[in-house]
Design goal:
Blueprint: H1 28-37, E1 42-46, E2 49-52, H2 53-69, E3 77-81, H3 86-97, E4 101-104, H4 111-121, E5 125-129, H5 133-139, E6 147-151, H6 159-164, H7 170-179, H8 190-196, E7 212-218, E8 226-231, H9 232-246, E9 254-257, H10 264-276, E10 280-283, H11 289-298, E11 303-306, H12 308-321, E12 330-333, H13 340-350, E13 353-359, E14 366-369, E15 383-384, E16 389-393, E17 408-413, E18 420-421, H14 425-431, E19 432-433, E20 437-446, E21 452-457, E22 462-464, E23 467-469, H15 471-478, E24 484-493, E25 499-507, H16 515-523, E26 534-537, H17 551-559
Parallel strand pairs: 1-10, 3-4, 3-5, 4-7, 5-6, 9-10, 11-12, 12-13, 25-26
Antiparallel strand pairs: 1-2, 7-8, 8-18, 13-14, 14-15, 16-17, 17-20, 19-20, 20-21, 22-23, 24-25
Helix pairs in contact: 1-2, 2-3, 2-8, 4-5, 9-10, 11-12, 12-13
InterPro entries: AMP-bd_C (IPR025110), AMP-bd_C_sf (IPR045851), AMP-binding_CS (IPR020845), AMP-dep_synth/lig_dom (IPR000873), ANL_N_sf (IPR042099), ATP-dep_AMP-bd_enzyme (IPR050237)
Pfam family, one: AMP-binding
Keywords: Ligase
Length: 564
């Protein structure tokens, strides 16, 4: 590979540096500084219950003692399966303070899914909300988990809301059922343990920047769950890069935590970046537009990391309610393409900016972003972050770069790039090339200003009749078709063609879309080989926890005959 220029630096936002200095420190150092400089500032607001930075630091120190007394030491894995709440933040930083490795899990996992990841990580202690205690206890027989600690999420609520849960009213019963579950006798309870503990001594050894901080599970390009190994330096670097990109001033931001903390996007923007800039994090256990608008009256937000469906639903709810969103100066959208109309409506309602970002769990996760300036490019993934380099290479031969402007696989190198997959040396070797270059599995092209535009994922590309069809390009055309509310395009076995292009569509209420209409619409907009050969109408599309359409699941369901 040859040397290359970095044209994107000229398009950066005002004062954004080309390079950043990544301090050699653990993630917990940012919390220590915030608690010292802003002790009385609210660190977390959970449904109206405020926790200051001083109180958060104290709870983390006590939580670290609890974990130490449970036998957790440097390098031990601590599983966390919690919805967004104050206790999630405490548990996250308490484990890191000891030099332990956090393993984040989706709190709604089935018992089998949780058991697989607990066994794979080798976690010895699991901090789980009451709803997941039974699944975690069942996994003890086949995993290294010694202790399961129950977390009562309702204990993080304001006192008046906790009392309301006891009322003999239908609404209170529904909320109580959603948050709580009976516990087996003898199950240790996190809040009680933390309240009784003494703070970990300040002189207790701290982890180094090179130590592993997090095992974050990802399906990657294969769909097989595997844990990306992220060090303190990886995560600190991404928080530093995010601060440089947003030019956030210490102690001024109010970040809305609607993304799940267990996902890489939410973890970095809400747990590590927020603490680095001493922001107030307004945390929500799940995304609810009405709850967000209620919080907006109480504690107006300035920054919203989100996915496009969240922006769309929140904007619609605000318009319907006449709510004021003008405190939001900027939003960062990720995980999927941001529709121009969604971006335009958000910017009209807020008067601020919304830009797209791109990344992977393996990049901690943010690697690219559109500038927070008039130079932003709707529809593009953005520009490489400070201290981040990219290459575009031949999909079959990653050692050969393609000509400028041609499409190829995106490679990324930077301080936020992971060190490999947990106990998977072969997959690590496939993904990480010499020189620290990460193969993303995404096909892109780069324009003359350095903006990266996504074509599609290599693994989801459809080969039909010898032609390559990128699902996202077909989906973009179909989303503009009258009557189409949502769409996923997949490849199914097509005989002599190899694969046939199939469109799975969710229609607008009362709309009728048939194959003839779809073919007529596509004939004028797509190459003939890319026109879907089959149409399936679904009532909804399967999505990930953050709203990303799961094409792989759509394809598997169609192969199994599960179409509705």
């Amino acid at each position: 590979m040859t040397d290359f220029t970095r044209p994107w630096h000229a398009t950066y936002g005002p004062a954004v540096p080309a390079e950043v200095d990544v301090p050699d420190e653990p993630l917990t150092a940012a919390l220590d500084r915030a608690a010292a400089a802003w002790p009385d500032r609210v660190a977390v607001d959970f449904l109206g219950a405020p926790t200051t930075y001083a109180d958060l630091a104290d709870a983390v120190a006590r939580g670290a003692t609890v974990l130490r007394d449970l036998g957790v030491g440097p390098g031990d894995r601590v599983a966390i399966a919690l919805p967004n709440c104050t206790s999630h933040m405490v548990a996250f930083y308490a484990a890191l303070r000891l030099g332990a490795v956090v393993v984040e899990h989706n709190p709604t996992y089935t018992a089998a899914e949780l058991e697989h990841q607990l066994a794979d990580s080798g976690a010895t202690v699991a901090l789980v909300w009451e709803k997941a205690v039974a699944a975690a206890l069942a996994a003890q027989a086949t995993t290294a988990v010694r202790t399961v600690v129950a977390v009562d999420v309702s204990a993080d609520l304001p006192a008046v809301k906790r009392l309301a849960l006891r009322l003999p009213l239908p609404a209170a019963r529904r909320t109580r059922t959603a948050l709580r579950s009976p516990l087996p006798a003898g199950t240790p309870v996190w809040h009680r343990l933390v309240a009784a503990a003494t703070p970990l001594p300040a002189e207790h050894p701290r982890p180094a920047g090179t130590d592993i901080a997090l095992l974050q599970y990802t399906g990657g390009t294969t769909g097989t769950p595997k844990a990306a190994v992220l060090t303190h330096r990886n995560l600190v670097a991404n928080a530093v890069q995010g601060q440089a990109w947003t030019q956030a001033e210490q102690g001024t931001e109010t970040i809305y935590g609607v993304l799940p903390f267990f996902h890489a996007f939410g973890l970095t923007l809400c747990l590590t970046y927020a603490t680095r800039v001493a922001a107030t994090l307004v945390a929500f256990p799940k995304f609810d537009p009405d709850a967000v608008l209620a919080a907006q009256k109480r504690r107006p937000g300035t920054f919203l990391p989100a996915v496009p469906p969240m922006l769309d639903r929140l904007a619609g709810a605000a318009e319907k309610a006449g709510a004021d969103l003008t405190s939001f100066r900027y939003a960062i959208s990720g995980a999927m393409s941001l529709a121009p109309q969604t971006a335009a409506r958000w910017e009209r309602l807020t008067g601020g900016l919304v830009v797209e970002g791109y990344g992977m769990t393996e990049t901690s996760p943010v690697a690219l972003g559109s500038p927070l300036s008039p130079a932003r490019r709707p529809g593009a993934l953005g520009l490489p972050f400070p201290s981040t380099d990219i290459r575009v290479v031949d999909q079959e031969d990653p050692t050969r770069e393609v000509a400028p402007g041609e499409q190829g696989e995106l490679l990324i190198r930077g301080p936020q790039v992971f060190s490999g997959y947990w106990n998977r040396p072969e997959e690590t070797a496939d993904q990480l090339l010499d020189g620290g270059w990460l193969r993303t599995g995404d096909v892109v092209r780069v324009d003359e200003n350095g903006f990266v535009v996504l074509v599609d994922r290599i693994k989801e590309m459809i080969v039909t009749g010898g032609f390559k069809v990128y699902p996202s390009q077909v989906e973009d055309k179909l989303r503009g078709m009258p009557g189409v509310r949502d769409v996923a395009v997949v490849g199914l076995p097509g005989g002599d063609l190899g694969e046939k292009v199939v469109a799975a569509i969710v229609t607008e209420l009362g709309a009728h879309v048939d194959m003839a209409a779809l073919r007529e619409w596509c004939d004028a907009r797509l190459a003939r080989y890319a026109v879907p050969r089959e149409l399936v109408i679904l009532t909804e599309l399967p999505r990930s926890q953050i709203g990303k359409v799961l094409r792989r699941v759509v394809r598997d369901d169609l192969l199994a005959g599960g179409a509705a």
